[in-house]
């Protein structure tokens, strides 16, 4: 039998560094063939990890968030739209309402999307209404009675550069700049500020934050169409065991129908990598049972220790030029470094980002300490909550569900940017110790040494939790 190793079984052998400081290490990478990353960190598509707030935060810091699939397709599309509308240099399809819309109706529309203003449109642009116009208004009043009419607006008849847009808005003391060409577009002062503030943000060609969305297999074709229309940049075909005829055929259908990158997982073997790449996968997600809230290996007796699984899949994927993301099994920034040094282009995690402000769910207090709930996707708690959501009612009886996961409380960690800062510094330090300038050189130079349990104890593993 072959030996399978996990991250606690190995260390990187230190090499002579070419860097004067770890800050010089470059950490840009790829998620899939056509989706770049300025930082190789992905928040997992789990109910208690990634919705729009997490996806926005991840993209602002150069990574990517994957909207989970455990809600209705309408809700998932709304989450994607919230990310795409959160910041963009140019808003291609700005929200427009009719002049007869009441303030009450307008508030509902704006709250659903998470913005504070709208263009007013009646076959053509007739005005704009912002929160300042209606914040103290009667709900029965109409948009037309409160809007700033078109003849009072400053507009552009061509798309200006960022510097020109800033000059126009400063000169006229405005925060919204409509652009009227063959269609109506919009530039806002808030988006311009964010474009300059988040210099390493992961943006698409229009300046919007990138976002991924997960797919289940049963409704993949219909859901993919709606998620793409909502603005998803990449789709993640996420199933516990992706090496199957069903998944292979679904990937072929998706690639034949839609022009979008597809990340496929989870897998753990070379043959799975070959079969899915030949089916059209643009990226592979590796990990069978390494998560702290996954019990697949216990319940099924199947799996491969994560370091070995990543190494094996990356060996095949590299020959095809397909990026690999290492999903789970990491408990510290050093584990993320080992996964990337083993060949992964990015790391995909729930446990790193669970418990942060941006993770869904309330902060709970127990024995004077703050926690947030973290549920495995195959846990009973997650399945019960999903059933209640789909049936739109409370279910008190115990459901007959086979589970391969658990739900736990994790320490409250504060803003996700603090977690990402540790991960980035850890990776940059690992690149320096690996004698490299960037991730590609780290993977070329990487030399590993297998260690004993005493060696792991000597490494200070008892206190190497990311939350500390």
Describe what you observe in this structure.
The structure is a single chain. The protein has 468 residues and is an alpha/beta fold. The protein folds into 2 domains: 7-87 and 202-463, TIM Barrel; 96-191, Roll (CBS-domain). It is built from 17 helices and 21 strands. The protein has an 8-stranded parallel beta barrel, surrounded by 7 helices. α1 (52-60) packs parallel to α2 and α10 (270-279) runs parallel beside α12 (306-320). The longest helix is centred in the last third of the chain and has 18 residues, at 416-433.
The profile of the biggest β sheet is: 8 strands, parallel, barrel
Number of strands: 21
Taken from the alpha-carbon principal axes, the silhouette is: globular
CATH domain class name of the largest domain? Alpha Beta
Structural class: alpha/beta
Report the sheet-strand fraction.
15-25%
Q: In the CATH classification, which architecture of the largest domain applies?
A: Alpha-Beta Barrel
- Average pLDDT, to the nearest integer? 91
Q: What's the total helix number?
A: 17
Features:
468 residues; alpha/beta; TIM Barrel; CBS-domain; 2 domains; eight-stranded parallel beta barrel; four-stranded mixed beta sheet; globular
Question: What order do the helices and strands come in, and which of them pair?
Answer:
Blueprint lengths: L9 E3 L16 E4 L2 E3 L3 E3 L8 H9 L3 E4 L5 H14 L9 E2 L5 H11 L3 E5 L3 E6 H4 L8 H4 L1 E2 L12 H11 L3 E5 L3 E5 H9 L14 E4 L4 H11 L3 E5 L6 H13 L3 E7 L2 H10 L3 E4 L9 H5 L5 H15 L3 E4 L5 H9 L4 E4 L14 E3 L2 E7 L4 H12 L15 E5 L4 H18 L5 H7 L2 E3 L2 H6 L10
Parallel strand pairs: 4-5, 4-17, 5-12, 6-7, 12-13, 13-14, 14-15, 15-16, 16-17
Antiparallel strand pairs: 1-21, 2-3, 7-8, 8-9, 10-11, 18-19, 19-20
Helix pairs in contact: 1-2, 2-8, 10-12, 13-15
């Amino acid at each position: 039998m072959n030996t399978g190793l996990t991250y606690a079984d190995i260390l990187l052998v230190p090499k002579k560094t070419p860097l004067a400081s770890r800050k010089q290490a470059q950490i840009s990478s790829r998620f899939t063939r056509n989706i770049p990353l300025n930082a190789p960190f992905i928040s997992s598509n789990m109910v208690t990890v990634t919705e729009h707030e997490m996806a926005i935060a991840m993209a602002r810091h150069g990574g990517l968030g994957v909207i989970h699939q455990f809600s209705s397709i309408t809700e998932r599309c709304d989450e994607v739209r919230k990310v795409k509308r959160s910041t963009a240099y140019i808003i291609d399809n700005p929200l427009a309402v009719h002049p007869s819309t009441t303030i009450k109706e307008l508030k509902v529309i704006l709250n659903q999307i998470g913005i504070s203003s709208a263009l007013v449109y009646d076959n053509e642009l007739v005005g704009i209404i912002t929160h300042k116009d209606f914040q103290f208004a009667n709900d029965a009043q109409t948009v037309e009675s409160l809007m700033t009419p078109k003849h009072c607006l400053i507009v552009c008849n061509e798309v200006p550069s960022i510097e020109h847009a800033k000059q126009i808005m400063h000169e006229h003391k405005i925060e919204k700049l409509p652009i009227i060409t063959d269609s109506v577009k919009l530039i806002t002062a808030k988006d311009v500020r964010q474009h300059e503030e988040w210099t390493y943000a992961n943006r698409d060609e229009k300046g919007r934050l990138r976002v991924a969305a997960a797919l289940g297999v049963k409704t993949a074709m219909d859901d993919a169409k709606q998620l793409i229309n909502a603005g998803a940049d990449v789709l993640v075909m996420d199933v516990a065991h992706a090496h199957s005829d069903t998944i292979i055929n679904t990937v072929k259908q998706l690639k034949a129908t839609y022009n979008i990158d597809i990340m496929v997982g989870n897998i753990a073997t070379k043959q799975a990598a070959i079969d899915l790449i030949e089916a059209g996968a643009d990226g592979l997600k590796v990990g069978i049972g390494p998560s702290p809230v996954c019990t697949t290996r216990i319940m099924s007796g199947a799996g491969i220790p994560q370091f070995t699984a990543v190494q094996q899949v990356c060996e095949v994927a590299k020959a095809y030029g397909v990026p690999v993301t290492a999903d789970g099994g990491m408990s510290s920034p050093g584990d993320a470094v080992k996964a990337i040094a083993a060949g992964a282009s990015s790391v995909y995690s729930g446990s790193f980002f669970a418990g942060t402000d941006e993770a869904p769910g309330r902060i709970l207090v127990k024995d004077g300490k703050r926690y947030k709930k973290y549920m495995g996707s195959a846990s009973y708690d997650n399945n019960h909550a999903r059933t209640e959501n789909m049936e739109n009612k409370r279910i008190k009886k115990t459901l007959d569900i086979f589970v391969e996961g658990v739900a736990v409380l994790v320490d409250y960690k504060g803003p996700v940017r603090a977690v990402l800062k540790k991960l980035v510094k850890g990776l940059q330090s690992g690149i320096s110790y690996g004698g490299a300038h960037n991730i590609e050189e780290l993977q070329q130079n990487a030399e590993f040494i297998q260690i004993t349990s005493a060696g792991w104890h000597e490494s200070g593993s008892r206190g190497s939790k990311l939350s500390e």
